[in-house]
């Protein structure tokens, strides 16, 4: 069995970590510019969204490798996600590493995207890239409008595609998971989709809130069984039941061995 404390163990000797991060400092900005500007020239080409999404996924994997960070997910969980359909993905949020590790571990057979706050779309360059990658623009100043946007976006998605939501709303620093907002449950109820919970373990040990340079180590992602809303229960009861299922895995601190 593996505990979250194991995440703090460095993967590479100091000399290798130093060499990798030197390469990241020297070549990283160039790579970022290529990815950022690609939508400006290629966004109108047929099949661009799929091609660009795969490019971003590979970039996330390379970034983690250069940081000597390994994102781990069992083969059984990968197989589960590769055939997952008609779902909304819900994950806990502990660190800026969370999105990168999710991009790295989720198999290519599973299509997904993120909901991003409207303010991030205000920068023209980011807006072009976000739209090209299929991200959903959410205006969090109006809860009603945000919910309507999310609901309509999910309804129009292919069953193979899922939106990823952080139910805590922001990175949490508490010992356990933070309180969950109801957005994912409301969207699932409105669209008839199930919820696919994923628990991230160890990311905050490597890059806590307030720090900018991550440590080397491992992050584990555990895929939980599909969660189905109970239309005979209240929204709050469904939210509490979803959180309890994820808390049980997170608080345990022990995750199944990789098989």
UniProtKB/TrEMBL annotation:
One record GO biological process: phosphatidic acid biosynthetic process
Keywords noted in UniProt: Acyltransferase, Membrane, Transferase, Transmembrane, Transmembrane helix
Pathway: Lipid metabolism
Annotated transmembrane regions: 23-43
GO molecular function: 1-acylglycerol-3-phosphate O-acyltransferase activity
SMART domains: PlsC
InterPro entries on file: Plipid/glycerol_acylTrfase (IPR002123)
Keyword Zinc-finger: no
Keyword Transmembrane helix on entry: yes
Domain Phospholipid/glycerol acyltransferase residue range list: 87-203
Domain of life: Bacteria
Protein name: Putative acyltransferase
Organism of origin: Donghicola eburneus
């Amino acid at each position: 069995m593996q505990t979250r404390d194991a995440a703090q163990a460095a993967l590479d000797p100091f000399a290798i970590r130093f060499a990798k991060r030197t390469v990241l400092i020297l070549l990283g900005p160039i790579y970022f510019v290529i990815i950022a500007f690609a939508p400006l020239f290629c966004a109108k080409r047929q099949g661009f969204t799929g091609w660009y999404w795969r490019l971003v996924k590979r970039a996330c994997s390379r970034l983690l490798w250069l940081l000597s960070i390994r994102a781990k997910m069992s083969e059984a969980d990968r197989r589960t996600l590769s055939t997952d359909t008609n779902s909304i993905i819900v994950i806990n949020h502990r660190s800026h590493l969370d999105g990168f590790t999710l991009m790295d571990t989720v198999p290519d057979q599973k299509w997904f995207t993120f909901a991003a706050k409207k303010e991030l779309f205000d920068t023209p360059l980011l807006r072009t890239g976000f739209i090209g990658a299929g991200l959903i623009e959410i205006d969090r100043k109006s809860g009603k409008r945000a919910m309507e946007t999310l609901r309509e976006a999910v309804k129009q998605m292919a069953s193979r595609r899922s939106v990823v939501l952080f139910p805590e709303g922001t990175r949490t620093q508490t010992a356990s998971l933070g309180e969950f907002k109801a957005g994912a449950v409301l969207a699932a109820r409105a669209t008839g989709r199930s919820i696919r919970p994923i628990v991230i373990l160890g990311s905050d040990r490597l890059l806590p809130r307030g720090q900018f340079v991550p440590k080397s180590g491992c992050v584990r992602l555990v895929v939980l069984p599909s969660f189905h809303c109970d239309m005979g229960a209240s929204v709050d009861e469904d939210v509490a039941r979803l959180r309890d299922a994820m808390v049980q895995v997170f608080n345990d601190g022990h995750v199944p061995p990789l098989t």
